[in-house]
Amino acid sequence: MSPDRPNLPLRTAVVGTGSIARGSHLPALATLAGEGTVETVAVVDIAEEAARAAADEFAVAGAFTDLDAMLAQVRPDLVVLCTPPSLHRAQAVAAVRSGAHVWCEKPPCPSLADYDAVTAAAEAEPGAPATAFVFQHRFGSGARHVRRLLREGAFGRPLVAHCQTTWYRGADYYAVPWRGRWDTEGGGPAMGHGIHQTDLLLDLMGPWREIRAMAARLVHDVQTEDVSTAQVRFAGGAVATVVNSVLSPDEVSRIRIDCELATIELTHLYGYRNADWRITPAPGVPQETALAWNDFGPDEPSSHLAQLRALVADIRAGTAHPTSGEGGRRIVEFTAALYKSAFTDTTVRAGEIGPGDPFYAAMHGGSPDRLPAVAPEEEQAA
Predict the structure, then answer these.
(1) Could you tell me the maximum CA-CA distance found in the chain, to the nearest angstrom?
(2) pLDDT tens, 109-119?
(3) Residue 183, Cβ neighbours under 10 Å: how many?
(4) In whole angstroms, how far apart are CA 183 and each of 110, 188, 279, 333?
(5) Distance CA 201, CA 379 (A)
(6) 207: alpha, beta or left? (left if phi > 0; alpha if psi -120 to 50)
(7) Is 0.90 topped by the overall pTM?
(8) What confidence tens digit (pLDDT) does each residue in 265-304 have?
(9) Could you tell me if 189 and 214 are in contact, meaning their C-beta atoms sit under 8 angstroms apart?
(10) Do residues 138 and 132 lie in contact, with contact meaning Cβ atoms separated by under 8 Å?
(11) How many CA atoms lie within 13 A of 74 on its CB side?
(12) How many of the other CB atoms lie within 10 Å of CB of 366?
């Protein structure tokens, strides 16, 4: 945001006009435009017809097919990236070098190296533009309530946790050319699907210490895994399981945290409301305490709108957004550690993956074909 116009709406451009842009980002921006905090001034898509259609649908003045041309001509305050992961690094760096803040869809980048390059580019610019990433589950009222109680120690020590993203994706999902490939999607369900729930788990549980994981490709004819499991130990001593799948017809997203004084449960699919959370007290906890724990206050669903509202407020205040810098990096590091553990059959510790480690440069560790399809046992025996 230019220092000579601090009280004006953030002039915002959206890059990529696919389903996530038109279903979530552009409607959220339209809502905030009505509140006077943003103004959507441009959309960009390599397909001119798609760019013009989105501009017409959301009453946006500028429709472009070239990001650099848009940045030079429009000079937006905020650029929203809704493009495939392999494009995020170059597009984010171009945006911050033009002086814009960036809000980028998940996965943030295909590798830790890419993530660090984006952060370094932003920090090198005057005023250090924000490079924040879409992790909207942190921003619902339910997560805020539970996070505060956990930080205050209201539930005692976290002891055991479970994080589950078991979804279903058929062959039509992988018919999109960039999906299911390491170089373009960056990974399978651990990277592209379960990343939201895992990010929320890390946000609630705090720093992780070590991970031991498995990954497999059981059904889909793709490069990446279609299922993974992991065991995690956190710095505070708690242990957890993380399960990610795109093979599960009965779809659910779930987090459960057992603490000394309560069990916290969240069950939903793609977004939650307060009613999707449940806090069960341990025996001996006073009833009035349990009632207070389950009073979540006004309901703000987890959504792109909830995070965007927080991001705009942070940009206007000049404060760091929770999903920028280290706040966004931790889930990328965790995912890289999950893949490294799964592919090397070792325990991986936090902070272990850095420049020079093959899993720093690519989630597959330099071997995109290292995950062979697993045949049923009877076929292997034959």
Answers:
(1) 73
(2) 999 999 999 99
(3) 13
(4) 7, 11, 41, 17
(5) 38
(6) beta
(7) yes
(8) 999 999 999 999 999 999 999 999 999 999 999 999 999 9
(9) no
(10) no
(11) 29
(12) 10
